[in-house]
Amino acid sequence: MLTRIGILGMGGVGGYFGGLLAKAYAESDQFEIVFIARGETQKAIAASGLKIITDDKEIIAFPSVVSNDPLTIGKLDYLICSTKTYDIEESLLSLEKCITKNTIFLPLYNGVDATERISTLYPDNEVLQGCVYIVSMIESAGVIKKMGPYEKLYFGSDTAPIGRLKALQTIFKNASVESYLVDNIVETVWEKFIFISALASATSYLNQNIGEIINSNSSRAVYVELLNEITMLAAVKGLNLPNDIVMQTIHKLEKTPKDATSSMHRDVLAGRKFELASLTEFVVNEGLKYEMELPTYKMVLDKLSKKINT
Known about the structure:
It comes from Flavobacterium gillisiae. By secondary structure, this protein is α/β, with parallel strands linked by helices.
């Protein structure tokens, strides 16, 4: 029986993990890997494949299909979603003809509200929760550059059939994707959100990369205050996170390439639309729900909101 896996969003996350899947199953008669792409990215992959550049090697992967036409894409068994969070609704509604009642969604977005948003669009489908730790980005159309050793993918669900979850884990494992099927996926996703939200907010607000933040006492103080505020919010929400989550997150940052920055900061620098709503504003709004003061997050939101409006 043929299993068809769609990759929506060919950026640093979707491009990297989708590329590993496409490379592994290129000769398979059991799996088809479908890249959902458009414009120059679609043209580049169709002509030359997807290139992945890491610190020590390059690979080129050709998917079974690369298209943004639902009729060409066809019905999907799994859909791995990794667009920007502001594109969730538009991108998924455009694929309505590709979704059956058995399609399972795996969101790999930066925010924590994607599962709820996708379930609103497709209430009859299983929508997993997931997150990744990776430093990767688009270098040019059809080319993904990955920096450093991190490439962990976590996923899980409280409701999806365990057989489908284990099948997906086997698919990842056989493609050399470092993936983990975890029981406490809500906490795992929030641990990642704490990392990326504070980092995105700090790098974009300070206009500094990771090394600059770590090496400046004043910048590091802003970053740590953001961490303190978001971990306090998580505690008030009742999430069971490690007691030393702030120190764990700082240690993760210190292991990240010093010349790297967040994807939100890169978008701000490039003058593109950026994920302020999911990564900063969401935290401020959640704080309001619980009548919490989050002054550092509010300060960041106020400044970055002006960049959206200019």
